[in-house]
Amino acid sequence: MQEKGTISIHSENIFPIIKKFLYSDHEVFLRELVSNAVDATQKIKSLSALGEYTGELGDTSIEIKINKKKKTLHVIDRGIGMTGEEIKKYINQIAFSGATEFVEKYKEKGEGAGIIGHFGLGFYSAFMVAEKVEIKSLSREEGAKPAHWVCDGSTEFELTEGDKKERGSEVILHINEDSKEFLEEHRVREVLNKYCKFLPVPIIFGEKEETIKEGEGEDAKEKKITKPVVINNPEPLWTKSPADLKDEDYINFYKELYPFSEEPLFWIHLNVDFPFNLTGILYFPKIKNELEMSKNKIQLYSRQVFITDEVKDVVPEFLMLLHGVIDSPDIPLNVSRSYLQADSNVKKINSHITKKVADKLSDLFKKERKSFEEKWESIGLFIKYGMMSDDKFYDKAKSFCLLKSINQDKYFTLDEYTEHVKTNQTDKDGNVNFIYATDPAKQDAFITSAEKKAYDVILLNSPIDSHFINMLEQKLEKTSMKRVDADIVDKLIDKDEKAESVLSDEEKEKLKKVFEEAVNNKSMTIAVEALSPDELPVTITLPEFMRRMKDMAQTGGGGMSFMGTMPDQFNLTINGNHKLAGKILKETDTEKQKALAKQGYDLALLSQNMLNGKDLTSFISRSVQMMD
Domain of 298: which CATH number? Predict the structure, then answer.
Protein backbone atom coordinates (compact mmCIF):
# COMPACT_ATOMS: atom_id res chain seq x y z
CA MET A 1 0.00 0.00 0.00
CA GLN A 2 1.32 3.44 -0.91
CA GLU A 3 -0.33 6.72 -0.06
CA LYS A 4 0.66 10.39 0.18
CA GLY A 5 -1.21 13.18 1.94
CA THR A 6 -1.01 15.99 4.48
CA ILE A 7 -1.06 15.70 8.26
CA SER A 8 -4.16 17.33 9.69
CA ILE A 9 -3.78 19.50 12.78
CA HIS A 10 -7.03 20.71 14.30
CA SER A 11 -7.21 23.87 16.36
CA GLU A 12 -9.44 22.19 18.93
CA ASN A 13 -6.54 19.81 19.65
CA ILE A 14 -3.68 22.29 19.68
CA PHE A 15 -5.48 25.10 21.53
CA PRO A 16 -5.40 23.39 24.97
CA ILE A 17 -1.68 22.68 24.48
CA ILE A 18 -0.99 26.35 23.75
CA LYS A 19 -2.97 27.42 26.81
CA LYS A 20 -1.37 24.99 29.23
CA PHE A 21 2.11 24.16 28.01
CA LEU A 22 3.37 26.96 25.76
CA TYR A 23 4.86 28.84 28.70
CA SER A 24 6.61 27.30 31.69
CA ASP A 25 5.48 30.13 33.97
CA HIS A 26 1.94 31.48 33.81
CA GLU A 27 2.94 34.97 34.95
CA VAL A 28 4.50 35.68 31.54
CA PHE A 29 1.02 36.27 30.08
CA LEU A 30 1.37 39.85 31.29
CA ARG A 31 4.74 40.24 29.61
CA GLU A 32 3.25 39.02 26.33
CA LEU A 33 0.18 41.26 26.45
CA VAL A 34 2.17 44.34 27.45
CA SER A 35 4.74 43.55 24.73
CA ASN A 36 1.88 43.43 22.19
CA ALA A 37 0.68 46.81 23.48
CA VAL A 38 4.20 48.21 23.09
CA ASP A 39 4.31 46.91 19.51
CA ALA A 40 1.01 48.60 18.72
CA THR A 41 2.32 51.84 20.19
CA GLN A 42 5.64 51.67 18.34
CA LYS A 43 3.79 51.00 15.07
CA ILE A 44 1.66 54.15 15.35
CA LYS A 45 4.79 56.16 16.12
CA SER A 46 6.55 54.68 13.09
CA LEU A 47 3.61 55.43 10.77
CA SER A 48 3.42 58.98 12.15
CA ALA A 49 7.15 59.48 11.50
CA LEU A 50 6.69 58.24 7.91
CA GLY A 51 3.73 60.55 7.37
CA GLU A 52 1.36 57.62 6.87
CA TYR A 53 -0.60 58.58 9.96
CA THR A 54 -1.49 62.25 10.12
CA GLY A 55 -3.68 62.30 13.24
CA GLU A 56 -2.59 63.46 16.67
CA LEU A 57 -0.50 60.88 18.52
CA GLY A 58 -1.61 62.17 21.91
CA ASP A 59 -0.83 60.17 25.03
CA THR A 60 0.84 56.91 23.97
CA SER A 61 1.32 55.40 27.41
CA ILE A 62 0.05 51.90 28.22
CA GLU A 63 -2.23 51.35 31.19
CA ILE A 64 -2.80 48.26 33.33
CA LYS A 65 -5.99 48.15 35.45
CA ILE A 66 -7.56 45.72 37.89
CA ASN A 67 -11.29 45.49 38.62
CA LYS A 68 -11.62 43.20 41.62
CA LYS A 69 -15.42 43.25 41.65
CA LYS A 70 -15.68 42.10 38.05
CA LYS A 71 -12.56 39.90 38.41
CA THR A 72 -10.98 41.49 35.35
CA LEU A 73 -7.50 42.65 34.40
CA HIS A 74 -7.21 45.24 31.60
CA VAL A 75 -4.25 46.04 29.30
CA ILE A 76 -4.97 49.28 27.42
CA ASP A 77 -2.85 50.85 24.71
CA ARG A 78 -3.25 53.89 22.49
CA GLY A 79 -1.46 52.33 19.58
CA ILE A 80 -2.30 51.40 16.03
CA GLY A 81 -5.58 49.58 16.83
CA MET A 82 -7.24 46.91 14.72
CA THR A 83 -10.23 46.66 12.42
CA GLY A 84 -12.53 43.65 12.60
CA GLU A 85 -10.75 42.18 9.57
CA GLU A 86 -7.36 42.61 11.22
CA ILE A 87 -8.59 40.90 14.38
CA LYS A 88 -9.72 37.94 12.27
CA LYS A 89 -6.32 37.90 10.55
CA TYR A 90 -4.01 38.35 13.53
CA ILE A 91 -5.98 36.87 16.42
CA ASN A 92 -8.06 34.08 14.90
CA GLN A 93 -5.18 32.68 12.85
CA ILE A 94 -2.85 31.25 15.49
CA ALA A 95 0.86 32.01 14.93
CA PHE A 96 0.24 34.70 12.28
CA SER A 97 2.39 37.46 13.73
CA GLY A 98 1.34 41.02 12.95
CA ALA A 99 4.66 42.26 14.29
CA THR A 100 6.61 40.14 11.82
CA GLU A 101 4.47 41.33 8.91
CA PHE A 102 4.92 44.97 9.95
CA VAL A 103 8.71 44.64 10.21
CA GLU A 104 8.91 43.03 6.78
CA LYS A 105 6.72 45.73 5.23
CA TYR A 106 8.65 48.71 6.63
CA LYS A 107 12.22 47.43 7.05
CA GLU A 108 13.39 49.14 3.83
CA LYS A 109 12.21 52.46 5.26
CA GLY A 110 14.22 51.93 8.43
CA GLU A 111 11.15 51.54 10.61
CA GLY A 112 9.97 48.58 12.65
CA ALA A 113 13.25 48.05 14.52
CA GLY A 114 11.55 48.49 17.88
CA ILE A 115 8.90 45.86 17.30
CA ILE A 116 9.11 43.06 19.86
CA GLY A 117 6.80 40.24 18.85
CA HIS A 118 7.67 37.62 16.27
CA PHE A 119 5.66 34.52 17.04
CA GLY A 120 2.01 35.55 17.10
CA LEU A 121 1.33 33.13 19.94
CA GLY A 122 1.84 35.49 22.86
CA PHE A 123 -1.76 36.70 22.93
CA TYR A 124 -3.02 33.19 23.70
CA SER A 125 -0.99 33.08 26.91
CA ALA A 126 -3.92 35.11 28.30
CA PHE A 127 -6.00 31.93 28.42
CA MET A 128 -3.61 30.41 30.95
CA VAL A 129 -5.13 32.72 33.57
CA ALA A 130 -8.46 33.81 32.04
CA GLU A 131 -11.71 31.94 31.47
CA LYS A 132 -12.77 34.58 28.94
CA VAL A 133 -10.89 37.23 26.97
CA GLU A 134 -12.23 40.32 25.25
CA ILE A 135 -10.60 42.70 22.80
CA LYS A 136 -12.00 46.18 22.24
CA SER A 137 -10.18 47.98 19.45
CA LEU A 138 -10.41 51.03 17.20
CA SER A 139 -8.08 51.19 14.20
CA ARG A 140 -6.07 54.29 13.30
CA GLU A 141 -7.62 54.08 9.78
CA GLU A 142 -9.89 56.97 8.99
CA GLY A 143 -13.58 55.99 9.22
CA ALA A 144 -12.79 52.64 10.85
CA LYS A 145 -15.49 51.11 13.03
CA PRO A 146 -14.65 49.84 16.52
CA ALA A 147 -14.47 46.06 16.91
CA HIS A 148 -15.32 43.83 19.85
CA TRP A 149 -13.95 40.25 19.99
CA VAL A 150 -14.87 37.71 22.69
CA CYS A 151 -13.61 34.16 23.24
CA ASP A 152 -14.18 31.78 26.17
CA GLY A 153 -11.06 29.69 25.58
CA SER A 154 -12.66 27.32 23.12
CA THR A 155 -12.17 27.49 19.36
CA GLU A 156 -15.31 29.62 19.01
CA PHE A 157 -15.31 33.42 19.08
CA GLU A 158 -17.73 36.27 18.61
CA LEU A 159 -16.82 39.42 16.67
CA THR A 160 -19.18 42.38 16.70
CA GLU A 161 -19.10 46.13 16.25
CA GLY A 162 -17.85 47.71 19.46
CA ASP A 163 -18.23 51.01 21.27
CA LYS A 164 -14.58 52.07 21.69
CA LYS A 165 -14.13 55.81 21.09
CA GLU A 166 -10.31 56.21 21.25
CA ARG A 167 -7.65 54.78 18.96
CA GLY A 168 -5.94 51.64 20.27
CA SER A 169 -6.83 48.35 21.91
CA GLU A 170 -8.03 47.14 25.28
CA VAL A 171 -7.54 43.50 26.22
CA ILE A 172 -9.82 42.39 29.07
CA LEU A 173 -9.03 39.19 30.93
CA HIS A 174 -11.78 37.58 33.04
CA ILE A 175 -9.46 35.90 35.55
CA ASN A 176 -10.25 32.28 36.38
CA GLU A 177 -10.53 30.86 39.92
CA ASP A 178 -7.05 29.31 39.86
CA SER A 179 -5.37 32.61 38.99
CA LYS A 180 -6.97 35.08 41.41
CA GLU A 181 -3.48 36.17 42.49
CA PHE A 182 -3.44 38.33 39.35
CA LEU A 183 -6.24 40.43 40.76
CA GLU A 184 -3.94 41.51 43.60
CA GLU A 185 -2.12 44.80 43.04
CA HIS A 186 1.14 43.68 44.67
CA ARG A 187 1.32 40.54 42.49
CA VAL A 188 0.70 42.42 39.24
CA ARG A 189 3.24 45.06 40.24
CA GLU A 190 5.77 42.30 40.95
CA VAL A 191 5.32 40.83 37.45
CA LEU A 192 5.45 44.26 35.77
CA ASN A 193 8.66 45.12 37.65
CA LYS A 194 10.21 41.86 36.58
CA TYR A 195 9.39 41.88 32.88
CA CYS A 196 8.43 45.42 31.95
CA LYS A 197 10.76 47.59 34.04
CA PHE A 198 12.61 48.99 31.02
CA LEU A 199 10.05 48.83 28.20
CA PRO A 200 10.38 51.77 25.78
CA VAL A 201 6.82 53.04 26.34
CA PRO A 202 5.55 54.42 29.68
CA ILE A 203 3.54 51.77 31.57
CA ILE A 204 0.94 53.13 34.01
CA PHE A 205 -0.24 51.02 36.92
CA GLY A 206 -2.02 52.51 39.92
CA GLU A 207 -2.15 56.02 41.33
CA LYS A 208 -0.40 58.02 44.01
CA GLU A 209 -1.31 61.11 46.02
CA GLU A 210 0.84 64.23 45.86
CA THR A 211 0.57 67.51 47.71
CA ILE A 212 0.97 70.71 45.68
CA LYS A 213 0.83 74.37 46.59
CA GLU A 214 -1.59 76.74 44.91
CA GLY A 215 -1.11 80.49 45.09
CA GLU A 216 1.78 82.51 46.51
CA GLY A 217 2.88 83.88 49.86
CA GLU A 218 0.41 83.86 52.73
CA ASP A 219 -2.43 82.98 50.39
CA ALA A 220 -0.75 79.75 49.27
CA LYS A 221 -2.78 76.65 49.99
CA GLU A 222 -1.87 72.99 49.92
CA LYS A 223 -3.89 70.72 47.71
CA LYS A 224 -3.80 66.96 47.30
CA ILE A 225 -3.91 65.59 43.78
CA THR A 226 -3.90 62.06 42.39
CA LYS A 227 -1.33 61.16 39.73
CA PRO A 228 -0.87 57.98 37.69
CA VAL A 229 2.20 55.88 38.58
CA VAL A 230 4.62 55.08 35.74
CA ILE A 231 6.24 51.82 36.83
CA ASN A 232 9.01 51.62 34.20
CA ASN A 233 12.07 53.49 32.97
CA PRO A 234 11.50 53.85 29.19
CA GLU A 235 15.07 55.04 28.54
CA PRO A 236 17.42 52.78 30.51
CA LEU A 237 21.10 53.63 30.54
CA TRP A 238 22.19 50.96 28.07
CA THR A 239 20.09 52.57 25.32
CA LYS A 240 22.10 55.80 25.56
CA SER A 241 25.47 56.74 24.09
CA PRO A 242 28.45 56.24 26.46
CA ALA A 243 29.68 59.69 25.40
CA ASP A 244 26.60 61.27 26.98
CA LEU A 245 27.01 59.50 30.35
CA LYS A 246 28.99 60.24 33.50
CA ASP A 247 30.29 57.86 36.17
CA GLU A 248 27.46 59.02 38.41
CA ASP A 249 24.91 57.83 35.83
CA TYR A 250 26.40 54.34 35.74
CA ILE A 251 26.52 54.11 39.55
CA ASN A 252 22.92 55.29 39.90
CA PHE A 253 21.75 52.76 37.33
CA TYR A 254 23.62 50.02 39.19
CA LYS A 255 21.74 51.00 42.35
CA GLU A 256 18.51 50.83 40.37
CA LEU A 257 19.35 47.26 39.34
CA TYR A 258 20.80 46.12 42.67
CA PRO A 259 19.48 48.40 45.44
CA PHE A 260 21.34 46.71 48.33
CA SER A 261 24.76 46.19 46.73
CA GLU A 262 28.00 48.08 47.24
CA GLU A 263 29.11 50.37 44.43
CA PRO A 264 30.75 48.48 41.54
CA LEU A 265 34.47 48.66 40.83
CA PHE A 266 34.01 49.66 37.18
CA TRP A 267 31.87 48.78 34.18
CA ILE A 268 31.86 48.04 30.46
CA HIS A 269 29.30 49.63 28.14
CA LEU A 270 28.53 47.31 25.22
CA ASN A 271 27.34 48.90 21.98
CA VAL A 272 27.61 46.78 18.84
CA ASP A 273 25.59 46.98 15.62
CA PHE A 274 27.61 44.66 13.37
CA PRO A 275 27.70 41.71 12.71
CA PHE A 276 24.95 41.52 15.37
CA ASN A 277 23.05 43.97 17.53
CA LEU A 278 24.12 44.05 21.15
CA THR A 279 23.84 46.70 23.84
CA GLY A 280 24.24 46.49 27.58
CA ILE A 281 26.30 47.35 30.62
CA LEU A 282 28.38 44.85 32.56
CA TYR A 283 29.53 45.77 36.06
CA PHE A 284 32.45 44.35 38.03
CA PRO A 285 31.10 44.08 41.58
CA LYS A 286 33.07 44.12 44.80
CA ILE A 287 33.30 40.55 45.99
CA LYS A 288 34.71 38.90 49.07
CA ASN A 289 37.46 36.34 48.71
CA GLU A 290 35.10 33.49 48.07
CA LEU A 291 33.65 31.94 44.94
CA GLU A 292 29.98 32.90 44.76
CA MET A 293 28.71 31.69 41.43
CA SER A 294 25.51 33.71 41.39
CA LYS A 295 23.58 32.71 38.30
CA ASN A 296 21.02 35.51 38.36
CA LYS A 297 23.06 38.69 38.35
CA ILE A 298 23.11 39.40 34.60
CA GLN A 299 19.72 40.06 33.05
CA LEU A 300 18.98 39.32 29.39
CA TYR A 301 16.59 41.59 27.48
CA SER A 302 15.31 41.62 23.93
CA ARG A 303 14.34 45.14 22.85
CA GLN A 304 14.02 46.13 26.52
CA VAL A 305 11.72 43.21 27.39
CA PHE A 306 13.12 41.06 30.21
CA ILE A 307 13.68 37.51 28.96
CA THR A 308 15.71 35.61 31.54
CA ASP A 309 18.55 35.74 34.03
CA GLU A 310 19.89 32.38 32.81
CA VAL A 311 22.55 33.70 30.47
CA LYS A 312 25.18 30.95 30.60
CA ASP A 313 25.18 30.51 26.81
CA VAL A 314 25.46 34.22 26.05
CA VAL A 315 28.00 35.15 28.72
CA PRO A 316 31.21 33.12 29.21
CA GLU A 317 31.01 31.06 32.40
CA PHE A 318 33.87 32.92 34.08
CA LEU A 319 31.96 36.19 33.70
CA MET A 320 28.82 34.88 35.39
CA LEU A 321 30.14 36.66 38.49
CA LEU A 322 29.52 39.99 36.78
CA HIS A 323 26.36 42.04 37.21
CA GLY A 324 24.41 44.03 34.64
CA VAL A 325 22.23 43.92 31.56
CA ILE A 326 22.56 42.54 28.03
CA ASP A 327 20.04 43.45 25.33
CA SER A 328 20.02 41.88 21.89
CA PRO A 329 17.25 41.27 19.36
CA ASP A 330 19.58 38.80 17.60
CA ILE A 331 19.64 36.24 20.39
CA PRO A 332 17.41 33.36 19.22
CA LEU A 333 14.66 32.41 21.64
CA ASN A 334 12.24 29.54 21.55
CA VAL A 335 8.54 30.27 21.15
CA SER A 336 8.04 30.87 24.87
CA ARG A 337 11.13 33.12 25.02
CA SER A 338 12.14 31.13 28.09
CA TYR A 339 15.21 29.39 26.68
CA LEU A 340 18.07 30.36 24.44
CA GLN A 341 18.61 28.24 21.38
CA ALA A 342 21.99 27.18 20.01
CA ASP A 343 22.97 29.61 17.27
CA SER A 344 26.07 31.12 15.68
CA ASN A 345 25.06 34.58 16.92
CA VAL A 346 25.11 33.36 20.52
CA LYS A 347 28.69 32.12 20.05
CA LYS A 348 29.71 35.39 18.41
CA ILE A 349 28.17 37.43 21.20
CA ASN A 350 29.88 35.22 23.78
CA SER A 351 33.27 35.77 22.09
CA HIS A 352 32.67 39.49 21.73
CA ILE A 353 31.86 39.93 25.41
CA THR A 354 35.04 38.05 26.33
CA LYS A 355 37.08 40.34 24.08
CA LYS A 356 35.45 43.51 25.41
CA VAL A 357 36.11 42.49 29.01
CA ALA A 358 39.75 41.63 28.24
CA ASP A 359 40.25 44.94 26.40
CA LYS A 360 38.71 46.91 29.27
CA LEU A 361 40.93 45.22 31.85
CA SER A 362 44.04 45.67 29.70
CA ASP A 363 43.24 49.34 29.15
CA LEU A 364 42.68 49.94 32.87
CA PHE A 365 45.94 48.18 33.74
CA LYS A 366 47.98 50.19 31.24
CA LYS A 367 46.47 53.57 32.07
CA GLU A 368 45.77 53.23 35.80
CA ARG A 369 47.96 50.46 37.18
CA LYS A 370 47.75 51.68 40.77
CA SER A 371 43.94 51.70 40.63
CA PHE A 372 44.01 48.27 38.97
CA GLU A 373 46.18 46.87 41.77
CA GLU A 374 43.83 48.31 44.40
CA LYS A 375 40.96 46.41 42.76
CA TRP A 376 42.90 43.17 42.35
CA GLU A 377 41.45 41.49 45.43
CA SER A 378 38.03 41.58 43.74
CA ILE A 379 38.87 41.30 40.04
CA GLY A 380 41.61 38.71 40.47
CA LEU A 381 39.01 35.98 40.85
CA PHE A 382 37.41 36.87 37.48
CA ILE A 383 40.74 37.03 35.72
CA LYS A 384 42.14 33.78 37.08
CA TYR A 385 38.91 31.91 36.35
CA GLY A 386 38.88 33.34 32.83
CA MET A 387 42.48 32.38 32.17
CA MET A 388 41.74 28.80 33.20
CA SER A 389 38.57 28.45 31.14
CA ASP A 390 39.30 30.39 27.95
CA ASP A 391 42.59 30.22 26.04
CA LYS A 392 41.88 33.42 24.12
CA PHE A 393 41.25 35.27 27.36
CA TYR A 394 44.44 33.78 28.80
CA ASP A 395 46.47 35.15 25.87
CA LYS A 396 45.23 38.66 26.65
CA ALA A 397 45.16 38.39 30.45
CA LYS A 398 48.68 37.06 30.98
CA SER A 399 49.98 40.61 30.56
CA PHE A 400 47.82 42.02 33.38
CA CYS A 401 47.41 39.02 35.71
CA LEU A 402 49.11 39.94 38.99
CA LEU A 403 50.96 38.05 41.72
CA LYS A 404 51.37 39.65 45.15
CA SER A 405 54.70 39.28 46.91
CA ILE A 406 54.28 38.87 50.67
CA ASN A 407 57.90 39.88 51.29
CA GLN A 408 57.79 42.98 49.11
CA ASP A 409 54.09 43.81 49.66
CA LYS A 410 54.06 44.53 45.95
CA TYR A 411 52.30 43.31 42.79
CA PHE A 412 54.12 41.83 39.81
CA THR A 413 52.90 40.66 36.40
CA LEU A 414 53.84 37.08 35.50
CA ASP A 415 56.80 38.22 33.39
CA GLU A 416 57.91 40.75 36.00
CA TYR A 417 57.82 38.14 38.74
CA THR A 418 59.80 35.59 36.73
CA GLU A 419 62.46 38.24 36.21
CA HIS A 420 62.34 39.17 39.92
CA VAL A 421 63.03 35.66 41.30
CA LYS A 422 64.87 33.77 38.58
CA THR A 423 68.38 34.57 39.87
CA ASN A 424 67.84 33.08 43.33
CA GLN A 425 64.97 30.66 42.75
CA THR A 426 66.13 28.60 39.78
CA ASP A 427 66.76 24.92 40.54
CA LYS A 428 69.42 22.58 39.22
CA ASP A 429 67.24 21.69 36.20
CA GLY A 430 66.78 25.34 35.17
CA ASN A 431 63.19 25.66 36.45
CA VAL A 432 62.15 28.94 38.05
CA ASN A 433 60.36 28.17 41.32
CA PHE A 434 57.42 30.28 42.47
CA ILE A 435 56.98 29.78 46.23
CA TYR A 436 53.50 30.55 47.49
CA ALA A 437 51.58 30.76 50.76
CA THR A 438 47.86 30.26 51.30
CA ASP A 439 47.63 31.44 54.91
CA PRO A 440 50.53 33.75 55.91
CA ALA A 441 49.52 33.82 59.59
CA LYS A 442 49.59 30.03 59.96
CA GLN A 443 52.60 29.59 57.66
CA ASP A 444 54.68 32.39 59.19
CA ALA A 445 57.44 30.08 60.45
CA PHE A 446 57.93 28.66 56.94
CA ILE A 447 57.79 32.11 55.33
CA THR A 448 60.46 33.31 57.79
CA SER A 449 62.68 30.35 56.86
CA ALA A 450 62.24 31.17 53.17
CA GLU A 451 63.12 34.82 53.78
CA LYS A 452 66.38 33.76 55.49
CA LYS A 453 67.40 32.21 52.17
CA ALA A 454 66.24 35.38 50.33
CA TYR A 455 63.38 33.49 48.73
CA ASP A 456 60.33 35.50 47.75
CA VAL A 457 56.87 34.19 48.69
CA ILE A 458 53.65 35.11 46.87
CA LEU A 459 50.11 34.97 48.22
CA LEU A 460 47.71 32.56 46.51
CA ASN A 461 44.68 32.18 48.76
CA SER A 462 41.59 32.42 46.56
CA PRO A 463 39.16 29.47 46.29
CA ILE A 464 40.35 28.63 42.79
CA ASP A 465 44.10 29.03 43.30
CA SER A 466 44.70 25.28 43.61
CA HIS A 467 43.57 25.03 39.96
CA PHE A 468 45.25 28.31 38.97
CA ILE A 469 48.60 26.99 40.24
CA ASN A 470 48.35 23.92 37.99
CA MET A 471 47.47 26.11 35.01
CA LEU A 472 50.51 28.34 35.57
CA GLU A 473 52.81 25.32 35.61
CA GLN A 474 51.32 24.14 32.32
CA LYS A 475 51.36 27.53 30.62
CA LEU A 476 54.61 29.10 31.89
CA GLU A 477 57.73 27.62 30.40
CA LYS A 478 60.13 25.94 32.89
CA THR A 479 58.22 27.16 35.94
CA SER A 480 57.45 25.16 39.08
CA MET A 481 55.05 26.05 41.90
CA LYS A 482 55.88 25.12 45.53
CA ARG A 483 53.85 25.87 48.63
CA VAL A 484 56.09 27.34 51.30
CA ASP A 485 55.33 24.55 53.79
CA ALA A 486 55.50 21.71 51.26
CA ASP A 487 59.01 20.77 52.35
CA ILE A 488 61.91 21.90 54.50
CA VAL A 489 63.33 25.12 53.13
CA ASP A 490 66.54 23.48 51.89
CA LYS A 491 64.52 21.12 49.73
CA LEU A 492 61.92 23.56 48.41
CA ILE A 493 64.27 24.46 45.58
CA ASP A 494 66.66 21.67 44.70
CA LYS A 495 69.94 23.38 43.87
CA ASP A 496 71.98 20.21 44.39
CA GLU A 497 73.58 21.76 47.47
CA LYS A 498 74.10 19.60 50.56
CA ALA A 499 74.86 20.97 54.00
CA GLU A 500 77.50 19.19 56.08
CA SER A 501 76.04 17.02 58.83
CA VAL A 502 77.43 17.08 62.39
CA LEU A 503 75.99 13.60 62.97
CA SER A 504 77.37 10.28 61.85
CA ASP A 505 75.14 7.82 59.99
CA GLU A 506 74.91 5.74 63.20
CA GLU A 507 73.77 8.77 65.22
CA LYS A 508 71.20 9.65 62.56
CA GLU A 509 69.72 6.16 62.73
CA LYS A 510 69.64 6.25 66.54
CA LEU A 511 67.93 9.66 66.52
CA LYS A 512 65.38 8.44 63.96
CA LYS A 513 64.44 5.43 66.16
CA VAL A 514 63.90 7.68 69.19
CA PHE A 515 61.46 9.77 67.21
CA GLU A 516 59.69 6.74 65.75
CA GLU A 517 59.00 5.45 69.28
CA ALA A 518 58.03 8.88 70.62
CA VAL A 519 55.78 9.80 67.70
CA ASN A 520 54.25 6.37 67.05
CA ASN A 521 52.41 7.63 63.97
CA LYS A 522 52.35 5.48 60.81
CA SER A 523 51.27 8.44 58.66
CA MET A 524 54.66 10.10 59.31
CA THR A 525 57.67 9.37 57.11
CA ILE A 526 60.64 10.25 59.34
CA ALA A 527 64.04 11.39 58.06
CA VAL A 528 67.09 13.14 59.56
CA GLU A 529 68.54 15.95 57.43
CA ALA A 530 71.52 18.30 57.78
CA LEU A 531 69.93 21.76 58.00
CA SER A 532 71.04 25.12 59.32
CA PRO A 533 71.24 25.14 63.15
CA ASP A 534 68.94 28.20 63.03
CA GLU A 535 66.12 26.22 61.43
CA LEU A 536 63.38 24.48 63.43
CA PRO A 537 64.49 21.27 65.21
CA VAL A 538 61.57 19.31 63.73
CA THR A 539 59.44 20.12 60.69
CA ILE A 540 56.23 18.49 59.44
CA THR A 541 55.28 18.92 55.80
CA LEU A 542 52.70 17.51 53.41
CA PRO A 543 54.32 16.94 50.00
CA GLU A 544 53.34 19.44 47.30
CA PHE A 545 51.73 16.86 45.03
CA MET A 546 49.60 15.31 47.79
CA ARG A 547 48.52 18.70 49.17
CA ARG A 548 47.65 20.08 45.74
CA MET A 549 45.56 17.07 44.79
CA LYS A 550 43.63 17.30 48.06
CA ASP A 551 43.09 21.05 47.59
CA MET A 552 41.74 20.45 44.09
CA ALA A 553 39.45 17.71 45.38
CA GLN A 554 37.97 20.16 47.90
CA THR A 555 37.26 22.75 45.19
CA GLY A 556 35.79 20.29 42.71
CA GLY A 557 38.83 19.23 40.72
CA GLY A 558 37.73 16.84 37.99
CA GLY A 559 38.84 13.29 38.66
CA MET A 560 40.39 14.24 42.01
CA SER A 561 37.45 13.61 44.34
CA PHE A 562 38.97 10.33 45.58
CA MET A 563 41.96 12.28 46.91
CA GLY A 564 39.75 13.98 49.49
CA THR A 565 39.12 10.64 51.22
CA MET A 566 42.75 9.45 51.25
CA PRO A 567 44.65 9.69 54.57
CA ASP A 568 47.36 12.33 54.79
CA GLN A 569 50.94 11.10 54.46
CA PHE A 570 53.24 13.61 56.12
CA ASN A 571 57.02 14.00 56.07
CA LEU A 572 58.64 14.55 59.47
CA THR A 573 62.12 16.02 59.09
CA ILE A 574 64.52 16.13 62.04
CA ASN A 575 67.19 18.82 61.86
CA GLY A 576 70.33 16.82 62.71
CA ASN A 577 72.35 20.03 63.09
CA HIS A 578 70.02 21.56 65.69
CA LYS A 579 71.13 21.46 69.34
CA LEU A 580 67.97 19.48 70.25
CA ALA A 581 69.31 16.52 68.23
CA GLY A 582 72.58 16.57 70.20
CA LYS A 583 70.71 16.92 73.49
CA ILE A 584 68.55 13.85 72.76
CA LEU A 585 71.57 11.76 71.76
CA LYS A 586 73.48 12.75 74.91
CA GLU A 587 70.54 11.90 77.16
CA THR A 588 70.95 8.46 78.75
CA ASP A 589 67.43 8.19 80.18
CA THR A 590 65.20 6.62 77.49
CA GLU A 591 62.02 8.25 78.79
CA LYS A 592 63.66 11.68 78.86
CA GLN A 593 64.84 11.10 75.28
CA LYS A 594 61.29 10.35 74.20
CA ALA A 595 59.96 13.38 76.09
CA LEU A 596 62.40 15.69 74.27
CA ALA A 597 61.56 14.09 70.92
CA LYS A 598 57.82 14.38 71.64
CA GLN A 599 58.29 18.05 72.56
CA GLY A 600 60.04 18.73 69.24
CA TYR A 601 57.32 16.80 67.39
CA ASP A 602 54.52 18.71 69.10
CA LEU A 603 56.21 22.02 68.28
CA ALA A 604 56.23 20.94 64.63
CA LEU A 605 52.53 20.04 64.85
CA LEU A 606 51.80 23.37 66.48
CA SER A 607 53.52 25.27 63.65
CA GLN A 608 51.17 23.54 61.18
CA ASN A 609 48.07 24.15 63.35
CA MET A 610 47.77 20.38 63.78
CA LEU A 611 48.04 20.17 67.58
CA ASN A 612 44.75 20.13 69.45
CA GLY A 613 42.66 18.39 72.11
CA LYS A 614 44.44 16.21 74.66
CA ASP A 615 47.72 16.37 72.73
CA LEU A 616 47.73 20.16 73.08
CA THR A 617 46.97 19.88 76.81
CA SER A 618 49.81 17.38 77.28
CA PHE A 619 52.20 19.64 75.35
CA ILE A 620 51.39 22.60 77.60
CA SER A 621 51.84 20.50 80.77
CA ARG A 622 55.16 19.11 79.50
CA SER A 623 56.38 22.61 78.60
CA VAL A 624 55.59 23.86 82.13
CA GLN A 625 57.48 20.93 83.67
CA MET A 626 60.54 21.60 81.50
CA MET A 627 60.66 25.19 82.82
CA ASP A 628 60.90 24.00 86.46
Answer: 3.30.230.80
209 in a known ligand binding site: no
The answer to whether 82 is annotated as binding is yes
Does the structure show a pLDDT above 80 at 567?
no
607 with 521, same domain: the answer is yes
As a whole number of angstroms, the distance between CA 340 and CA 479 comes to 42
Q: What CATH number has the domain bearing residue 434?
A: 3.40.50.11260
Q: What is the pLDDT of residues 393-433, one digit of tens each?
A: 999 999 999 999 999 999 999 999 999 999 999 999 999 99
Question: Does 161 show up as a binding residue in the annotation?
Answer: no
Task: Give the sign of the dihedral formed by CA 59, CA 62, CA 65, CA 71.
Answer: positive
Compute the CA torsion angle 466, 467, 470, 471 (nearest 10 deg): -140
- pTM given for the model: 0.75
- Structure confidence by residue, pLDDT tens digits, 219-262: 777 778 888 999 999 999 999 999 999 999 999 999 999 888 88
Q: Is 337 annotated as a binding residue?
A: yes
Query: How many CA atoms lie less than 13 Å away from 211 in the CB half-sphere?
Result: 3
- Could you list the residue range(s) of the whole structural domain that residue 543 is in? 505-627
Cβ-based burial of 465 (10 A; exposed 0-12, middle 13-18, buried ≥19): buried
What pLDDT sits at residue 104? 54
